Each structure stands twice: as C-alpha cells, then as structure tokens.
From TrEMBL:
UniProt keywords, alphabetically: Transferase
Organism the protein comes from: uncultured Leptolyngbya sp
Stored InterPro entries: Acyl_CoA_acyltransferase
Protein name: Aminoglycoside N6'-acetyltransferase
Keyword Transferase set for record: yes
Pfam families named among the record's database cross-references: Acetyltransf_8
GO terms of molecular function: transferase activity
Transferase found in the keyword field: yes
Length: 55
C-alpha cells in the first residue's frame, strides 16, 4: 500500500451510512478519525499511517 516512501498516510472518507465500508477499512488497519460533512454527505474519515525505519 505504501510503495512510495514519500507517502506516509492515506485518508479515506466513506459515507457515514456505508457500514460495510467501515468494517472493510477497519479490517485493513484504518483508524476512525472523525465524522465530517462534505457538501450534503455525512462521511467518516479514516486514516492509515506507515512509519519507516531510517537506515
């Protein structure tokens, strides 16, 4: 998922009503951040962070 070391985080925002998407992303390790409104859509924001060891 993080093939480019410059990418350290991913944010996704499925609709608040899309509980199947919430479960899917949580199983992949995404963590709930907050609920937001984008236009007329209520969404849940999730993030996934990757840390790299400096060698």
């Amino acid at each position: 998922m993080f093939a480019d070391p410059a990418v350290t985080a991913l944010l996704i925002d499925p609709l608040a009503s899309n509980t199947r998407a919430h479960r899917f992303y949580e199983r992949l390790g995404f963590q709930f951040v907050e609920q937001r409104r984008f236009g007329k859509d209520d969404c849940w924001v999730y993030s996934s962070f990757q840390s790299y060891e400096v060698q």
